[in-house]
Design brief:
Shape: globular
Number of helices: 42
Distance between the termini: 74 Å
Number of strands: 40
Length: about 1500
């Protein structure tokens, strides 16, 4: 019926008419812009923008600035909600607050707001001045400020200081430095919880002084209550509730805090921030503990505040609960997280009376700097507009102006000019005190209609930190970038593969079943021998095991990492059996005879083995960033020792039931034969794969791995790289299948099994076994106790200094030994043997009645074991517990799982063992899963294993099934057949036949050594890396990514030096300790100048006596000296074209690198001309383990070349040279320096490096973007906000290069990115390029600057790179951001996530084929050319698809240089037109029109 109605023609006609009406209806006019009203969460998200307008003094109307008019800088706040704040000027603020009481609670920033508001209301002299009224805006000593203003005059003022501050002020009259030292000393513990609970109520009680003038309608009272922490806010509210002398006044309350939680956490004793020592990190407080404390205090205070603001004293005007304010250094890390608990809590609580004002977002949108962590007056003014809009609604006449012009000391630069020497020259203690003492008035301006309201730039910058892995994955997997349809295709392919594997295995089983269908069950040893499944030495006592079935070769269970069910017992109770008496455990009745475990029963360990193997694989991929950040995945490595315990358990169980008379060597070979074939195939396949990628391994490592010696074998002594420590180098971390190290351990344990079994079999009592097991359980805890007992550096986490694959120190040697050596895991194998012995001794005889307690315990062991493990796995990442957990501190829980699945003979089978029975057959595949996990990942066609359907793990399982049925089982059957051949069972050969096994590792060794002499396609020059990037990768005709052969440019002197210190026979630049990174180049006409950072790393440990400032004492500490040997290499070429720099896109060949020499002419200053060395040493003291970490850098780093006119300049980062610049209390910080008049041809020419004095907050300054504008040098200081500073006198040789006026702007999509992902930081990269070829930039057809930036995840240290465009005139607004650039990534030498770092960019025309660039209309290259050779002779390009010869055309392109993982220096060359396609075509063009180019 429904289908017939839908098919009615009339219905379709009505739908068509309705569609036409809707399509042709006129568009609705946009709604008028409204004034922001009182709201539970006032609008703050938007962008503050500056305009150049002509303002009528009378009407305050603004009009577009026309040349010749007097114009002013006018500011507007464009909010995403579509409303605008009406501007409250000073007279309106006075009218609004007359007769009202404004109470504020917070630290120094709230103190600044208090002073600003009070001075705004005062008409003659400032109401509050730190100099005159003897207080500091420091957030520590000023505890109360109470001021009453009437008609612009102050009639009452009260300032209460901490008594320690009063004591220190006594010194100031004759020794100002002594006073400052006194303040620093008395800050320590100044606001502990106990002190604030007793002292602050006394200070706050002064609001009740009898001298306070009573309330009058024209009087305004402003009170500041000190609050660093939330418990202080609650004290302030209690004081207000107890006030009686201003009962008649309407009260509003404003609070903002959060910064001091971070300050106190980072602080050290007796520093300026040590006001609450119990919150210090060095006292053992973690970030999680700090956030928990903050949230606890905050929720208690909010409960009190909510009652106070909605039903209490402030219920008429309400309260504004504000987050802390924002400064540029707070873009990421804990600073970005500290406001999140308040934001979450207020989302559920906020009302129009209990408002949440997100000042963090508001001040982040305001494009101005900070004054030592405090807001300038421009920001304070806008913040008060938001507060007042919710207080003054309906109280005063609103102005029509929503734009504002500022008069006075409002901007950061104005404050710095007005307050020289940080305000000290004018008698202030701090810069922000001086700034807020000067008036800053805000005047309303009515905007012109075309600018009445502008919606912020739409969209958000999309970041994918895993995108950089795609190029790496393409090189190893040869796939294209993942698209939505690909995952569906892979799903179908995976299902199809599974069906094919199942059919093939089924067919194989059918053939083999048919082959053995005529065999009868063996009843004697003679029949056993005839089945070719047992050797002549084996015994066959089937009379002891009535349920024993014929062992069938098609169901042979491979020895999963240990021979997972040893002996004939593993073929009993088999699902393939035709014996009617054998039942599934799940089908039996509890208590019946069929449910009772017998000595010959098969262990139900299949699901446990597969789950453990998958968890191990997941942990490996989690460490590579392939899985979600879920701590459960991080603990998978703990199951590797469990397999060792499982091997000992199964071998002992088999030996106890069916003793074998064989030698230790025969025993080892018998088990090796079950695992080696699949292992050997995986090694050979991995070797072929890695050689295709260009990876090479030393022959020593290859041979050792073929013979399963990698866990305890040393490397070739000529390759040891321990810097003279005299320690050998282990090869375990260099192996192809490094995760197969446990097979090397099993080799030793199987060889020694006979001896071990003799010892274990001597245990004849249960209690003795339990005592021995307890000892083995406690043994791994030595890895926890010994570091604590001997005060090992870094405590439990002492091994974190080890870098995977690097062995330079004793710590490296010890960590590798503990991670892989068989001696470190023999206790695990022995524990498995003892478990089996305990099971044998606990076996109940037929005459004994079963114990209900033991039976209940058997049922509970598996759930309790897994529950305990799951609790640990979900508690957080392994972190410092990684090494102890690897050494098996979780043995008790894992042993419970093992014995719980195995059961005890004579008792009912455990419940979960019966549940696992139907799927127990999957145990044979756990070994394949473990071995093939990395190789499957290498051929996995998607870029990540974290797919929506878990496809990778399904794929891994199917591959394991295939490898077991087509490699392992056939190889095992072949081995048994060979062993039972007549010629090997004669009297002379029978004792030696097992030695034929050694032909297999001999053959594998020979194949590996032979393959080393063959060249594989795609070979590269990058060594010692698990993954490498391809030498050349082309995505399109206009886009190519290739390796730069930097080592070819090394001057002989440098190469010889690198070779001498290299510990390997590979290229020095790819050595473990050295690298050439961060290249920078600039083209000038036909010439090229290139610079690169050459560095090596050295780590030394020692115990020394040092003076510790934190404790004011001298003591013996562990000193870790990390030395980074750094220098800059430079070279130049007068003919870049001849070196191939113009033909990269066409030929796909890397250009030649000019000869690179060390830049030796860099000097410290003009007068002394000392070489640029002996730099400040950064130090960090770790209190909990008494470790002093020294970071030493020996030279300049990270060069950035630029050309300003004819001047060659080089900016670089460095620690300050000793004796020239202040190192500071912690040994200095990295800063930016500039060298003028650089002569690349003469690296020894004297050049002076001067510090760029452009920084805003005194933080580490790197990643600035230099560019030229109208013959002047500018630096992009930060991206969010976009701060551009002009550099003065850069052509001179100076020790300091001052910076001029700063230009601030914001790009809303980047602001939204940081709001949604507070853990990311946005930083600059490379140089900015001026682009004026508008024919190639259709998405922005105007001249502009092209810059580059990177977004880094502070948690994973992964980078995402973008290009962006900004306007060609001040304030240099960002107008577009590209989609993410796809740069190849590698893991760094220090270990960690894969990353790339973009270091340089340059514009250079590239010659490309006309046929592939859209210029076919230029015609063919000559006439009659029909052969490729003749075309190339003419210097043209041959297009095979068109069978024609085309001329080469010049196309502008951008050459982007970057370093992948600190080991691979590369360049991405992309045409300007192709790069333009990466921009979305929606520029923020309004900012382009604010200042017209002259």
């Amino acid at each position: 019926m429904v289908i017939e109605m839908l098919a009615t023609p009339a219905l379709w006609r009505w739908c068509c008419c309705l569609y036409l009406l809707l399509a042709l209806a006129p568009a609705r006019a946009p709604a008028a812009v409204t004034t922001c009203q009182r709201d539970r969460e006032p609008a703050v998200e938007g962008s503050l923008t500056s305009h150049r307008l002509s303002v009528d003094p009378g009407t305050k109307n603004g009009t577009t600035c026309i040349k010749g008019q007097s114009c002013q800088q006018v500011w507007s706040m464009s909010l995403e909600r579509g409303c605008s704040y009406s501007i409250y000027e000073a007279p309106q603020v006075r009218d609004c607050l007359a007769g009202r009481w404004v109470a504020l609670s917070g630290s120094s920033q709230v103190n600044v707001w208090t002073v600003y508001l009070a001075n705004l209301l005062a008409t003659t002299t400032p109401a509050l001045d730190a100099r005159v009224h003897h207080f500091n805006i420091d957030g520590v000593f000023t505890e109360l400020i109470d001021v009453i203003i009437e008609d612009g005059e102050v009639i009452y003022r009260k300032v209460i200081l901490n008594h320690n501050k009063v004591e220190c002020e006594m010194w100031r009259s004759y020794n100002d430095q002594r006073a400052r030292n006194c303040e620093t000393w008395h800050r320590h513990n100044a606001h502990s919880v106990a002190r604030d609970a007793t002292q602050l109520p006394k200070a706050f009680n002064h609001i009740n002084d009898p001298a306070v003038p009573r309330h009058m309608p024209r009087r305004t009272r402003i009170t500041y209550f000190f609050a660093q922490f939330w418990d202080n806010v609650e004290t302030a509210v209690k004081a207000l509730e107890g006030n009686s002398n201003w009962n008649g006044a309407d009260l509003t309350f404003v609070s903002s805090l959060g910064k001091w939680y971070v300050n106190a956490w980072y602080c050290r004793p007796y520093q300026w921030c040590s006001t609450r020592p119990e919150y210090m990190m060095m006292k053992g407080v973690t970030e999680k503990d700090l956030m928990k404390t903050l949230e606890h205090d905050m929720l208690s205070a909010l409960d009190h505040l909510e009652r106070f603001c909605t039903n209490g004293r402030a219920s008429k005007l309400g309260c504004s609960i504000a987050s802390m304010d924002y400064c540029p250094h707070m873009a990421s890390g804990i600073w970005a997280k500290i406001s999140m608990p308040l934001r979450r809590a207020m989302q559920a609580r906020s009302t129009e009376l209990f408002r949440f004002v997100d000042v963090f977002k508001l001040t982040r949108n305001i494009v101005d700097g900070c004054l030592g962590g405090h807001q300038p007056q421009l920001s304070n003014a806008w913040t008060w507009q938001v507060f007042l809009s919710n207080i003054c609604m309906g109280r005063t006449v609103l102005s029509q102006g929503t734009f504002a012009v500022f008069d006075g000391t409002c901007r950061t630069e104005q404050a710095q000019q007005h307050c020289p020497n940080l305000g000290r020259d004018k008698g202030f203690h701090y810069l922000w005190e001086c700034a807020v003492s000067s008036p800053c008035l805000m005047h309303a301006v009515v905007p012109p209609p075309e600018l009445a309201w502008k919606h912020p730039t739409p969209g958000i910058v999309k970041v994918d930190f895993a995108l950089g892995l795609s190029l790496l994955k393409r090189s190893s997997k040869m796939v294209v970038h993942s698209r939505p349809w690909q995952e569906t295709s892979v799903l179908l392919a995976t299902v199809l593969l599974g069906a094919m594997v199942a059919c093939a295995c089924s067919q194989t089983c059918s053939i083999q079943r048919k082959h053995h269908s005529d065999h009868e069950l063996p009843s004697t040893c003679e029949q056993c021998e005839q089945t070719a499944l047992l050797s002549r030495e084996d015994t066959c006592e089937h009379d002891e095991f009535p349920n024993a079935l014929e062992p069938k070769p098609w169901i042979v269970t491979p020895t999963d990492l240990a021979g997972t069910n040893e002996g004939p017992e593993k073929y009993t109770m088999d699902p393939d059996s035709e014996d009617e008496d054998v039942k599934f455990m799940g089908e039996c009745e509890p208590g019946s005879a069929s449910c009772v475990v017998t000595p010959g029963d098969r262990f139900m360990l299949g699901p446990a083995c597969v789950a453990a193997s998958l968890h191990v694989a997941a942990s490996h991929f989690y460490s590579q960033g392939q899985l979600a950040d879920f701590p459960f995945f991080d603990w998978g490595f703990t199951w590797v020792p469990w397999f060792l315990m499982l091997s000992g358990f199964l071998l002992t169980s088999a030996q106890q039931r069916l003793p074998r008379e064989e030698t230790s060597c025969q025993h080892m070979v018998r088990h090796l034969a079950s695992i080696y074939p699949l292992y050997a195939v995986s090694v050979l396949l991995t070797y072929v794969h890695d050689r295709l990628l260009g990876l090479t391994l030393h022959k020593w490592v290859l041979v050792a791995q073929a013979w399963l010696l990698q866990a305890f074998m040393f490397d070739d002594p000529r390759r040891w790289s321990n810097k003279g420590l005299g320690l050998p180098r282990w090869i375990a971390e260099d192996a192809l299948q490094a995760h197969c190290w446990l097979f090397s351990c099993l080799l030793v344990y199987w060889l020694a099994f006979k001896c071990s079994y003799q010892v274990v079999s001597n245990f004849t009592r249960v209690c003795s076994v339990l005592i021995a097991m307890s000892f083995l359980f406690l043994l791994p805890w030595l890895s926890v106790l010994l570091p604590w007992a001997f005060s090992v550096p870094s405590g439990l986490d002492w091994g974190h200094e080890h870098i995977y694959g690097k062995q330079r120190t004793t710590v490296d040697f010890a960590v590798v030994f503990l991670k892989f050596n068989p001696l470190c895991y023999i206790h695990v194998f022995w524990l498995g043997m003892l478990l089996s012995r305990l099971r044998e001794l606990a076996m109940k005889s037929q005459e004994e009645s079963p114990s209900s307690c033991v039976q209940f315990l058997l049922h509970a062991l598996v759930p309790l074991g897994y529950l305990g493990l799951l609790t640990i796995f979900l508690s957080g990442p392994a972190a410092a517990w990684r090494l102890p957990a690897r050494l098996s501190i979780l043995l008790p829980l894992q042993a419970a799982v093992l014995i719980g699945f195995a059961g005890i003979p004579g008792y009912n089978a455990p419940l979960l063992a019966r549940v696992a029975r139907p799927i127990n057959f999957i145990e044979r595949y756990s070994f394949g899963i473990y071995v093939m996990q990395h190789l499957c990942f290498d051929i996995w066609p998607l870029e990540s294993v974290a797919s929506e359907y878990g496809l990778y793990f399904v794929f891994l399982f199917w591959v394991a099934v295939m490898m077991v049925h087509f490699v392992q089982i056939p190889a095992l059957v072949a081995w048994i057949t060979i062993q039972n051949a007549d010629f090997l069972n004669g009297p002379r050969m029978v004792g030696y036949k097992h030695h034929f096994f050694w032909l297999l590792p001999t053959a594998v060794s020979g194949l590996l050594l032979l393959a080393m002499h063959f060249d594989f396609p795609g070979r590269t020059d990058v060594h010692n890396s698990r993954f490498v990037l391809p030498s050349v990768y082309r995505t399109s005709d206009g886009h190519i990514d290739l390796r730069l052969p930097m080592s070819e440019g090394l001057h002989r002197e440098i190469s010889d030096h690198a070779s001498r210190i290299s510990s390997d026979d590979t290229s020095a630049i790819n050595d473990d300790d050295q690298s050439l990174i961060n290249p920078s180049f600039v083209f000038s006409g036909g010439s090229l100048v290139i610079a690169v950072h050459h560095r090596s790393l050295d780590i030394q440990h020692s115990n020394k006596s040092r003076w510790i400032k934190a404790n004011l004492s001298r003591r013996i500490v562990t000193v870790i000296e990390v030395t980074r040997h750094s220098r800059i290499l430079m070279g130049s070429s007068s003919d870049a074209k001849a070196h191939g720099w113009d033909d990269i896109l066409h030929t796909g060949k890397a250009p030649r690198i000019p000869s690179l020499r060390g830049w030796s002419g860099l000097r410290v200053n003009v007068s002394s001309l000392h070489p640029w060395k002996d730099l400040c040493i950064r130090q960090r003291y770790i209190e909990k383990n008494h470790t002093l970490v020294l970071h030493r850098v020996t030279g300049a780093e990270d060069p950035k070349l630029m050309q300003v006119g004819s001047e060659s300049l080089l900016a670089f980062s460095s620690y300050p040279p000793l004796g020239t610049f202040d190192c500071g209390p912690d040994g200095g910080r990295s800063q930016m320096y500039l060298a003028a008049s650089v002569v690349p041809d003469d690296v020894g020419a004297t050049v002076v490096g001067g510090r760029l004095d452009c920084e805003v907050e005194g933080l580490a300054t790197k990643n600035w973007i230099p560019f030229e504008h109208r013959g002047k040098l500018y630096m992009v200081y930060s991206i969010v906000p976009h701060v551009v500073k002009e550099v003065f006198r850069y052509r001179e040789r100076r020790a300091v290069y001052p910076c001029g006026l700063s230009y601030y702007s914001n790009f809303p999509p980047l602001l939204r990115l940081q709001a949604q992902q507070p853990g990311v930081a946005v930083r600059g990269s490379a140089q900015a390029l001026f682009v004026k070829d508008i024919n190639r930039t259709k998405n922005l057809p105007t001249p502009h600057y092209l810059g580059f930036m990177h977004i880094v995840d502070s948690g994973t240290q992964r980078y995402a790179h973008f290009a962006y465009r900004f306007s060609p005139e001040p304030p240099f607004d960002i107008v577009q951001v590209s989609t993410q650039l796809e740069l190849g990534v590698l893991s760094p030498q220090g270990g960690g996530s894969e990353f790339a770092f973009l270091s340089s960019a340059a514009l250079r025309n590239q010659r490309i084929c006309a046929a592939t660039s859209g210029f076919e209309n230029r015609g063919l290259c000559g006439t009659g050319v029909t052969m490729q050779h003749a075309c190339e002779v003419k210097g043209c390009c041959w297009v095979e698809a068109k069978k024609a010869c085309f001329e080469k055309v010049s196309e502008p392109a951008v050459i982007i240089a970057y370093s992948a993982g600190e080991s691979d220096t590369r360049a991405m060359v992309i045409t300007l037109a192709r790069l333009d396609e990466l921009f979305d075509g929606r520029p923020n063009v309004s900012s382009m029109n604010k200042v017209q180019p002259k």
